[in-house]
Amino acid sequence: MQSDPGVYEQTLTLELSALQPELRVLIVDDDPDARDYLVAVVQEAGYQTAVASSGEEALQLLETEFCPIMITDRNMPGMDGVTLCKRAREGHYPGYLYIFLLTAQNASADIVSGLKAGADDYLGKKNISAPELVARLGNARRIVSLEQALRRALDQKRQMANTDALTGAYSRRYLERQLSLELERTRRFNHPVSLLLLDIDYFKRINDRYGHAIGDEVLRNTYRRLRDLLPRACDWIARYGGEEFLIVLIDTDLRGAEIVAQRLVRAMADTPIDSSAGPIPVTISVGGSEAAQILTSDLNSTRLIEIADRCLYASKRDGRNRYTMSLDGQSPLAFSSAASSAQGQAH
């Protein structure tokens, strides 16, 4: 292998200016001398390295310590570089794997077979120079960086679609999709799931008195308090619309949901919600429903929410600041009177 120190130093300076320090390069070669040379050049260029002496060892490293760039020799005993490329492309990694195939065979057919196997680029083993290697690594780094940026953008877009922008609760879109999945799990494993649909009492009066900006603060801080009051991390909250939130309680029957509803109603009534205008008394009305262990054929997410909505209406009709629970929306199985510590606070 050849090296031109002057050109190499110039190329190295350019690459270091835009280098991502956390980028790691996996070097795979059964020849210790060739492997050590590659490690020295790659590390001097500012990249971190991991090494493997066989294709099998390389695949194990990719699973446990993923490196976004891999340089592998083509001709190795056991699993050769072409097979390693194919196997690596079948893996499931946290990001894109950019593969260099290092080969002493410069015939067109050999290069084509390596690229078809999954290699992104090839390096001539007999005449590769340090500056060329660093320059090609720079190209690989740019592609890996673009893929990482795209992945982050897609994750952010997905998160935005799943999250209500105002409150931080899950969105209505997420609710509709995820609740259907929860009901499928209920049918399959015979585990109950319960809903609590709640409404901030007389929220319009808060907006009229303090303005919509303060009303938005009340919505955000109400969500945060509700979230902190949930008993388990697996339970979740979505903003259902306006001043309504829907809580999904996993593996919880109606009796368990009633305990949670009672806690929420009392906690909201006991302590005003903080805002820029000062503490604001807030109470909630709650309606609860349960998808029982044996589901009827017509019980879907829409029907389950309808039952909770009927119970919520009953709570509001009976004076607000209370909860009502039912399996069918017709016959309440549990209900509460208004929380004593906050009688009339939100009226």
From TrEMBL:
<dbReference type="InterPro" id="IPR029787">
    <property type="entry name" value="Nucleotide_cyclase"/>
</dbReference>
<dbReference type="InterPro" id="IPR000160">
    <property type="entry name" value="GGDEF_dom"/>
</dbReference>
<dbReference type="InterPro" id="IPR001789">
    <property type="entry name" value="Sig_transdc_resp-reg_receiver"/>
</dbReference>
<dbReference type="InterPro" id="IPR043128">
    <property type="entry name" value="Rev_trsase/Diguanyl_cyclase"/>
</dbReference>
<dbReference type="InterPro" id="IPR011006">
    <property type="entry name" value="CheY-like_superfamily"/>
</dbReference>
<dbReference type="Pfam" id="PF00990">
    <property type="entry name" value="GGDEF"/>
</dbReference>
<feature type="domain" description="GGDEF">
    <location>
        <begin position="191"/>
        <end position="328"/>
    </location>
</feature>
<dbReference type="GO" id="GO:1902201">
    <property type="term" value="P:negative regulation of bacterial-type flagellum-dependent cell motility"/>
</dbReference>
<keyword id="KW-0597">Phosphoprotein</keyword>
<feature type="domain" description="Response regulatory">
    <location>
        <begin position="24"/>
        <end position="140"/>
    </location>
</feature>
<dbReference type="Pfam" id="PF00072">
    <property type="entry name" value="Response_reg"/>
</dbReference>
<dbReference type="GO" id="GO:0005886">
    <property type="term" value="C:plasma membrane"/>
</dbReference>
<feature type="modified residue" description="4-aspartylphosphate">
    <location>
        <position position="73"/>
    </location>
</feature>
<protein>
    <recommendedName>
        <fullName>diguanylate cyclase</fullName>
        <ecNumber>2.7.7.65</ecNumber>
    </recommendedName>
</protein>
<dbReference type="GO" id="GO:0043709">
    <property type="term" value="P:cell adhesion involved in single-species biofilm formation"/>
</dbReference>
<dbReference type="GO" id="GO:0052621">
    <property type="term" value="F:diguanylate cyclase activity"/>
</dbReference>
<dbReference type="GO" id="GO:0000160">
    <property type="term" value="P:phosphorelay signal transduction system"/>
</dbReference>
<dbReference type="InterPro" id="IPR050469">
    <property type="entry name" value="Diguanylate_Cyclase"/>
</dbReference>
